[in-house]
Specification:
Elements (H helix, E strand, L loop, with lengths): L9 H4 L6 E4 L7 E4 L20 E6 L2 H4 L10 E5 H9 L3 H5 L7 H10 L6 H20 L4 E4 L5 H5 L21 H4 L5 H17 L5 E5 L5 H13 L11 E5 L2 H5 L1 H5 L4 E5 H9 L17 H16 L3 E5 L2 H4 L1 H10 L3 E4 L4 H59 L1
Parallel strand pairs: 3-4, 3-10, 4-5, 5-6, 6-7, 7-8, 8-9, 9-10
Antiparallel strand pairs: 1-2
């Protein structure tokens, strides 16, 4: 029987006789929903799933739910969100651990002290919990690649972590503010990023998960990439050493425009279709008023995707996409396959659907190439025939001229 404990408010919120859905199917955290839910069960024969050239990978965030999906014949994890582990398993802003003695929020300080009890250094709590959480995700697909994205909270989200308000600026538009790569080399967060790097190094070198690939989010310029890679190297994470690969999220138009320069610094790109669509079209993705304009299938967005795949491949870098569009729209999956994308990463519940969409798209592409080849052969044969006719006609004309010359001589 499902059971949810420690809710804190259930005795005040729930009333006798009310119908609720108790869900223990979403990882370590339980949920209670109002009303009766309709449940549909889909049975999947894994052996019947098609094999595809384009890799289909998983998006995973919750370490508690990760092991449920080990049977899926995925090609790895295309996106593991570090911030989910920080939010749920750690709960503390890393800078609050580094500067614990300077905290001004007494309540937060007391809670942090209780959570980190038993650790010689409070920062060890962050490194240990993060490494262990990510290890549960990395184990699911070992030895297939598991791409771990560095923390990508916005400032308002970081501020909600214990002790976080003291270290975060207030921004009018956090979506375009102090986030992603810009934090990692900044003095405002550099010490917190050091802890992220220490956790990743422990994950790869001490725990043995060398299948982990590190991914840098929201990297605006090649110069910013250089600074992030330098900080990583100072923390023992050197691209190319011990097989370490480093990817970059492709979610800003500059990542597409300067794809060749980013490819010189990273081993691969992962297209974040939501942010790339938002920034290409100038449409806030959460706006209800502008929702009809937000589409990954807009010609401008498709141009961006097609261009970065072409230019990255030309530079020897891989390209993947993480998002729901390929599962919701088979024609978008076809578009990606026709562009030659290397991998598509989706949520586990969409895996089988996308796998079939990708197989169907690849089959259609092969059909197209098969129908074109005979036409090329026919054209080539026709040209050869015309060439032969031309040579025969030329020889005949020359022979006739020679005969005429002989008759005139006689």
């Amino acid at each position: 029987m499902p059971a949810v404990i420690g809710t804190g408010s259930s005795t005040r919120t729930l009333v006798d006789g009310a119908e609720v859905l108790v869900s223990c199917a979403e990882g370590d955290q339980g949920f209670v929903y109002r009303g009766r839910a309709s449940i549909r069960v889909d049975e999947l024969a894994l052996a019947e799933l098609p094999v595809t050239r384009t890799k289909v990978m998983l998006n995973l965030a919750d370490p508690g739910a990760a092991l449920r999906w080990w049977r899926l014949p995925a090609d790895g994890v295309g996106l593991a969100r570090m911030e989910f582990v920080i939010d749920h398993a750690i709960k503390i802003h890393p800078m609050a651990l580094v500067h614990f003695d300077e905290l001004t929020d007494a309540a937060a300080k007391a809670e942090i002290a209780a959570l980190t009890q038993g650790y010689a250094k409070r920062t060890d709590y962050f490194v240990d919990r993060l490494a262990r959480g990510l290890a549960r995700i990395a184990a699911v697909q070992y030895p297939n690649p598991v791409i771990v994205r560095l923390s990508d909270f916005k400032t308002n989200e970081y501020a909600h972590l214990l002790g976080g308000a003291q270290f975060e600026p207030r921004e009018e538009n956090p979506m375009l503010g102090f986030r992603g790569a810009s934090r990692y080399y900044s003095l405002r967060y550099r010490e917190g990023f050091d802890l992220e790097c220490q956790a990743l190094r422990r994950l790869r070198e001490e725990m043995g998960f060398t299948n982990v690939v590190v991914m840098v989010p929201f990297c605006r310029t090649p110069g910013e990439a250089d600074q992030v890679l330098a900080v990583m190297a100072e923390n023992g994470l050197v691209r190319g050493e011990r097989g370490l690969q480093v990817y970059v999220m492709c979610e800003i138009p500059s990542n597409v425009i300067l794809a060749a320069e980013f490819a010189a610094r990273f081993d691969g790109f992962s297209i974040g279709s939501n942010d790339l669509t938002q920034l290409t079209l100038g449409v806030e993705r959460d706006s209800e008023l502008l929702a009809p304009l937000f589409s990954e299938q807009d010609p401008a967005v498709q141009w961006m995707i097609r261009t970065v795949i072409r230019d990255a491949h030309a530079a020897g870098a891989k390209v993947g996409l993480c998002g729901q569009a390929p599962s919701d729209h088979p024609e978008f999956a076809r578009f990606l396959v026709e562009c030659g994308i290397d991998s598509i990463s989706v949520t586990p519940d969409s895996f089988a659907t996308v796998k079939r969409h990708v197989a169907a798209a690849a089959k259609g592409t092969r059909r197209l190439s098969i129908t074109v080849l005979p036409a090329q052969a026919v054209i080539q044969k026709a040209l050869r025939t015309l060439g032969s006719c031309a040579r025969l006609c030329g020889a005949g004309i020359a022979r006739e001229r020679r005969l005429r010359g002989c008759s005139r001589q006689r």
